[in-house]
């Protein structure tokens, strides 16, 4: 076991670290009775975006009016399976705590989400459903249920939510959703109940508010073909029911995108195309109803003016046009058992039209909820006698409302909240105090307001407001709103929570009108007007209207049909307000709820410098102060001795594994061992009461550690036994495998030895008969020798053409080896030739010509071999532009600077030798000095020494060709090779030793004498010859 001091220190440090701003549980407030401290704590946390705070097990949520980064999957995993107070307050903690309680205790649970408009109730419900969708076990079937549960929200919001002054997406109906879970904890189905739909919004909206979202979404996002079939236009300003609030367009709402979301959601929750078409037809019929206008005829009765609207209505509602027209302008009266139809005046007809619109929309909403329930229903449980699933309920209902003019619907809403508050008092505050008294625990009592007296004022039979209004609606004669008020003043004038203008004192009368009455609710005083209440609950003419729909096939408007026949009992207030008390029944069945109090920071959205918090009023109305005081005075957790002992007995050696004495003594021994301080707990007659949550969770932490210790010991014993059994099995198996494997190895080794001996024997016999013709005795040896040669040849093939190595073949393969050698050489030559580029090929051809002409003949040839011949020695930009122009179309293939020696005097002159396709040109700067056609070139003479002199022999033809040309080039081998190849005079190059004769002019010759010396000297000798002394570079 772990010492309690260490656990308590760990728990305290964790709590201190989490309380960065204020405290996260109002139970931990030092001044828990101060309303100012209560509100200040909320304000501090809200400013730091800490919107959640506990009051014991109650969660207080303040709407931040912005997206916070606290709803990711990582946050969900953080709260999954964690004790309630181990992490900071969050809606996920409430969701997980209820889920785990349902799983461990096998009891249905309920989460109650309450608060006024704009407090964030709808978003809180969404977050809880998203948490279950992510954290609960999943399969393909379960995933379908999760998707339908999540996608039911956009559909219900479209048909049941609207923009109000406080909230752009305010729920205008109450919702109780049952989520069914199987024994694995996976969601398998659900069921939704709706309460108190604000049907009056269909026909009237206050300034700055809108009708239900679906109307605007249909007009803004509906396809043109769909709107044409429904007879609608995209402009919301064309419909009277959509412009009462004068804000059909809202910048913060994207109706087009929301329409796409709704259509996708309808398909996910299994709505067929015909279902959607019929549903939208009813929605369109409501818009057409609003555009119906009446005028007064000559008899003073109402008469329709909108025949086009009647035609669309008859088509959409599938009724006869004449019947609908009559129903809108007449009412049915029963006199002496006969049904009489009397015309309606203008006011009555307008009311009948609006009443029909509300009735049609209300029935459509009920049909929609039933259709969603069909898709969420757990089919496999139908017909089973025993229930095997668990249910977790979510109640989302708008809270206490007070407006400037409070109608019959606000009366119903506030009555429902009174019932919820009464239930909360009975299930929490009152029941806890009674439990403490029954257990003999002394504590300081909390004074709280018991609102049962207000509930009785509204619902008591024969005396309550509902009964009086019911009686006034059904009595013979002309009942009016004022007669109803008089009846109230007469019947309940002495009730302390009821007040009218007539019953009030002079000062109080100034605060409300003569047609109002005031109820003193638990949350505050509210004035209700009686004007229109008789109309609001009297549906006689509406019965006649809806009766026209009955003969036709079922549709959304007939999901709850009226009784057949004219004598059917009309609807009055009891049937209209039957849903007011239904939420309390569901919560009572599910046991004590997990409450979440949602608060708006101000009346009109987020707080600002000019709009401070209104927490005081909200907290007081929600009963938050009473809850905080009750939990602080009392105890946060109670457990019966038996349950406490069974759960925690492993923490104490004296109580583990069993305690044989009285349970109370065992529990006392256990808490003493855990180190509970006297102020932290009390022992009752049958239960232990733990005051502080941190004490309980310190115990839970110790239990988790102890569980690990016990589990480790059990695992060790089991693993030891399991491993021993496994080892023995493995040992037997290993022995059998080893015996078989040893035999297999021995057999393989014997076979291998036998094969080796046979191979050696065949090899030796083959070697002996190696020179004999092929026979069975030597065929193995000969094949082996051939194979060895070929494999050796494969590893030692020549690497290139110059590599002449080749393995020595055996005598039998001499001929084959030679053929293979020739093939290999050809292949290498072919491969080498394929890789030669055109430029390199030209270079090789020139080198080959140079070798053929000058090898072993010209002294400086060896020095030219390693040097590549240049494509040209002068680039085009180095030639004079006039020369290029003079050449015309002749393209210069090679250009080299040369020295020309005059035929007379042998004076050296710098020139350029240009070679083209057809001629050779000798150029001086910008002037072509001489052109030598290749066809006229007779030959070329050069010495065998290392000098660069050569003579181009040309015929003497007048002034153009006066004689041979004597030139000198620093690249004589390269130059002569290119001249010879261009002029095709390779075989006309003469390499002379001693002297060269050349033609100076017509009939005249010159001589060039060549001698060896130490350095190159070219000069005119005394005998008139050109003397060339050249050093010898190579000895021959």
From TrEMBL:
Domain (TH1): residue spans on this chain: 858-1032
GO MF annotation terms: actin filament binding; ATP binding; microfilament motor activity
InterPro entries: IQ_motif_EF-hand-BS, Kinesin_motor_dom_sf, Myosin_head_motor_dom-like, Myosin_TH1, P-loop_NTPase
Gene3D superfamilies in the record: 1.10.10.820, 1.20.5.190, 1.20.58.530, 6.20.240.20, Kinesin motor domain (3.40.850.10), Myosin VI head, motor domain, U50 subdomain (1.20.120.720)
Domain Myosin motor: from-to ranges: 22-530
Protein keywords: Acetylation, Actin-binding, ATP-binding, Cell projection, Cytoplasm, Motor protein, Myosin, Nucleotide-binding, Repeat
A matching Pfam family: Myosin_head
Localization, UniProt: Cell projection, Stereocilium membrane; Cytoplasm
Biological processes, Gene Ontology terms: actin filament organization; actin filament-based movement; endocytosis; glomerulus development
Domain of life: Eukaryota
GO CC, alphabetical: cytoplasm; microvillus; myosin complex; stereocilium membrane
Binding sites annotated in the UniProt record for ATP: 115-122
Family the entry assigns: Belongs to the TRAFAC class myosin-kinesin ATPase superfamily. Myosin family.
Protein name per Swiss-Prot or TrEMBL: Myosin IC
Gene source species: Latimeria chalumnae
Gene: MYO1C
């Amino acid at each position: 076991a772990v010492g309690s001091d260490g656990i308590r220190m760990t728990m305290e440090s964790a709590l201190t670290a989490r309380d960065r701003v204020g405290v996260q549980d109002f139970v931990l407030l030092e001044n828990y009775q101060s309303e100012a401290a209560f509100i200040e704590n909320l304000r501090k946390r809200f400013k730091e975006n800490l919107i959640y705070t506990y009051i014991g097990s109650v969660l207080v949520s303040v709407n931040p009016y912005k997206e916070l980064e606290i709803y990711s999957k990582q946050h969900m995993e953080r709260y999954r399976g964690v004790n309630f107070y181990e992490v900071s307050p969050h809606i996920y903690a409430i969701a997980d705590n209820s889920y785990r309680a349902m799983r461990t205790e096998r009891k249905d649970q309920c989460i109650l989400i309450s608060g006024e408009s704009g407090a964030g109730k709808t978003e809180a419900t969404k977050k809880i459903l998203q948490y279950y969708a992510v954290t609960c076990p999943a399969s393909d079937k379960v995933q379908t249920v999760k998707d339908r549960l999540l996608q039911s929200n956009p559909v219900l919001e479209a048909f049941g939510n609207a923009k109000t002054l406080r909230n752009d997406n305010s729920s205008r109906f109450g919702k109780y959703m049952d989520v069914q879970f199987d024994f694995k904890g996976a969601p398998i189905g659900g069921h939704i109940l709706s309460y108190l739909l604000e049907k009056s919004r269909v026909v009237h909206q206050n300034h700055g508010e809108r009708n239900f979202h679906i109307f605007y979404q249909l007009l803004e996002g509906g396809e043109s073909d769909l709107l044409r079939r429904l007879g609608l236009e995209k402009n919301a300003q064309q419909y009277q029911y959509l412009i009462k609030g004068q804000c059909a367009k809202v910048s913060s709402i994207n109706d087009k995108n929301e329409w796409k979301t709704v259509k996708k959601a309808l398909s996910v929750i299994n709505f067929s195309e015909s279902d959607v078409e019929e549903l939208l037809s009813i929605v369109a019929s409501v818009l057409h109803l609003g555009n119906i206008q009446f005028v007064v005829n000559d008899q003073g009765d109402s008469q329709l003016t909108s025949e086009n609207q009647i035609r669309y209505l008859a088509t959409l509602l599938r009724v006869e046009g004449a019947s609908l027209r009559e129903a809108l302008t007449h009412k049915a009266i029963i006199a002496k058992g006969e049904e009489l139809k009397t015309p309606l005046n203008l006011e009555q007809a307008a009311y009948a039209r609006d009443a029909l619109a509300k009735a049609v929309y209300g029935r459509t909403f009920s049909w929609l909820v039933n259709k969603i329930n069909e898709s969420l229903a757990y089919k496999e449980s139908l017909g089973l006698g025993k229930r095997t699933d668990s249910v977790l309920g979510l109640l989302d209902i708008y809270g206490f409302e007070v407006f400037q003019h409070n109608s019959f619907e606000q009366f119903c809403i506030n009555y429902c909240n009174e019932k919820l508050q009464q239930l909360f008092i009975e299930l929490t505050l009152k029941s806890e105090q009674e439990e403490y008294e029954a257990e003999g625990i002394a504590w300081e009592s909390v004074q709280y307001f018991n609102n049962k007296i207000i509930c009785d004022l509204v619902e008591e039979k024969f005396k309550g407001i509902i009964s009086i209004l019911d009686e006034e609606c059904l009595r013979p004669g002309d009942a009016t709103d004022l007669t109803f008020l008089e009846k109230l003043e007469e019947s309940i004038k002495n009730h302390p929570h009821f007040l009218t203008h007539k019953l009030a004192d002079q000062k109080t009368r100034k605060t409300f009108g003569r047609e109002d009455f005031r109820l003193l609710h638990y949350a505050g005083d509210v004035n209700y007007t009686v004007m229109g209440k008789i109309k609001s609950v009297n549906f006689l003419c509406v019965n006649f209207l809806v009766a026209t729909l009955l003969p036709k096939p079922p549709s959304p408007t007939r999901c709850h049909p009226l009784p057949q026949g004219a004598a059917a009992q009309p609807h009055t207030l009891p049937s209209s307000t039957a849903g007011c008390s239904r939420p309390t029944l569901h919560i009572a069945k599910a046991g004590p709820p997990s409450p979440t109090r949602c608060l708006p920071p101000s009346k009109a959205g987020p707080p600002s410098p000019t709009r401070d918090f209104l927490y005081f009023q909200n907290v007081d109305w929600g009963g938050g102060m009473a809850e905080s005081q009750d939990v602080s005075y009392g105890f946060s957790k109670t457990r019966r001795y038996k349950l406490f002992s069974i759960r925690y007995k492993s923490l104490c050696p004296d109580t583990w594994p069993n305690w044989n004495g009285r349970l109370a003594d065992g529990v006392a021994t256990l808490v003493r061992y855990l180190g509970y301080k006297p102020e932290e707990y009390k022992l009752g007659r049958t239960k232990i009461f733990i005051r502080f949550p941190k004490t309980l969770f310190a115990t839970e932490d110790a239990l988790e550690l102890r569980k690990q210790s016990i589990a480790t010991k059990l695992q060790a014993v089991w693993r030891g036994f399991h491993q021993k059994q496994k080892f023995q099995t493995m040992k037997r198996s290993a022995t059998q495998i080893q015996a078989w494997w040893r035999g297999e190895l021995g057999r393989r080794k014997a076979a291998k030895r036998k094969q080796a001996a046979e191979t050696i024997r065949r090899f030796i016999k083959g070697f002996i008969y190696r020179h004999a013709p092929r026979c069975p005795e030597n065929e193995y040896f000969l094949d082996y020798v051939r194979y060895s040669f070929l494999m050796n040849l494969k590893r030692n093939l020549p690497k290139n053409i110059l590599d002449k190595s080749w393995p020595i073949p055996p005598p039998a393969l001499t001929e084959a080896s030679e053929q293979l050698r020739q093939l290999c050489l050809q292949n290498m030559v072919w491969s080498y030739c394929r890789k030669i580029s055109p430029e390199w090929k030209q270079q090789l051809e020139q080198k080959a010509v140079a070798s053929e002409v000058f090898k072993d003949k010209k002294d400086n040839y060896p020095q030219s071999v390693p040097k590549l011949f240049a494509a040209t020695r002068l680039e085009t930009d180095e030639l004079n532009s006039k020369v290029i122009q003079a050449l015309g179309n002749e393209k210069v293939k090679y250009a080299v600077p040369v020295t020309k020696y005059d035929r007379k005097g042998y004076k050296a002159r710098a020139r350029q030798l240009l070679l083209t396709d057809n001629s050779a040109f000798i150029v001086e700067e910008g002037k072509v000095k001489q052109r030598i056609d290749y066809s006229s070139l007779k030959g070329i003479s050069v010495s065998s020494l290392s000098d660069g002199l050569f003579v181009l022999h040309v015929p003497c033809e007048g002034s153009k060709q006066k004689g041979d040309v004597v030139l000198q080039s620093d690249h004589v081998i390269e130059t002569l090779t290119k001249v010879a190849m261009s002029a095709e005079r390779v075989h006309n190059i003469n390499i002379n030793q001693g002297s060269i004769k050349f033609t100076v002019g017509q009939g005249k010759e010159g001589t060039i004498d060549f001698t060896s010396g130490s350095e190159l000297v070219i000069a005119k000798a005394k005998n008139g010859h050109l003397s060339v002394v050249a050093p010898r570079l190579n000895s021959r």
